[in-house]
């Protein structure tokens, strides 16, 4: 089993790439190089400006904190272009080997991760993917970690809103993957705690949108549950940007289904540039849904003062007026990995790998970062998800450098 150490190395004159309206970074001599693999060219550049800004700000903020510590190290950020394809990602990871980095933020998509993972594994580079979700990447004790949108925060908010609207008998349509199953369990626990129940749940294939057959089956089931539970019947939909086309298809269902109350959530991936509350509300209005609670483009972190301020900084740096809110997670992920480099054990990655080696938990090693009271503070936790039985999160490492 590989152990991943993030150690201080000597690297003078490293250049950090810039994007959007970014300023020239300060280059520190004898600093620890850190990498960010981003799609700067090609077809996948839609999130690159804000992800770049998030990485730059995280490094700058951590360096500012370390400036007050006499023995504190410094970090230099190196950006490499993964060119929106697998070959570009491989070229970038090979470049990072020459840069002597110990961890890399990125790549973004699952196929790029699959290409770079064996190389990263061989050279003891920890890879922190920003958006990949493939179950094929759920390999215990490997070099890949993934940022997760805070579904543990979003879904309880949606559940509470549903309960507050009197929706206690919930029918769930969810993606049949690790994240969809985890979302279902969190929703189930919260609804039950509020005196309700998940009366029907139906998975659909993790690739693409629910099929017409899926929707028809779901419609029939909801119709049956509505006959039993009346106005307290609600729908919870856990998916990605397919929310809108799915609702468009629901509009073609019989009237007795279209009048069902709805709770809609896009809690597993925030893509406000593709799906907005207004779009989803318009579809629901066409479907005559009577009560709708959304967690689409309202990432809870953005609603916190620190999260809102950070998003404003990312907007200013990237030049995008409305940056994707997952950039907050990218900032948190980069900041936490910088803290890991200063962990007393030498590396929190090492501590995490040791925990995984003896852990009875499931198959995916996942990071979820949250602050203790202040999301931009000094406390970060690393979690692992158990998907072998009832999905559950367990804290396996605490970073308090």
Automatic annotation (TrEMBL):
Keyword Transcription carried by entry: no
Domain of life: Bacteria
InterPro entries (UniProt xref): BCAA_transport (IPR051010), Leu-bd (IPR028081), Peripla_BP_I (IPR028082)
Domain Leucine-binding protein: 34-347
Keyword Transmembrane: no
Keywords: Receptor, Signal
Homology family: Belongs to the leucine-binding protein family.
Name of this protein: Extracellular ligand-binding receptor
Lineage: Bacteria, Bacillati, Armatimonadota, Fimbriimonadia, Fimbriimonadales
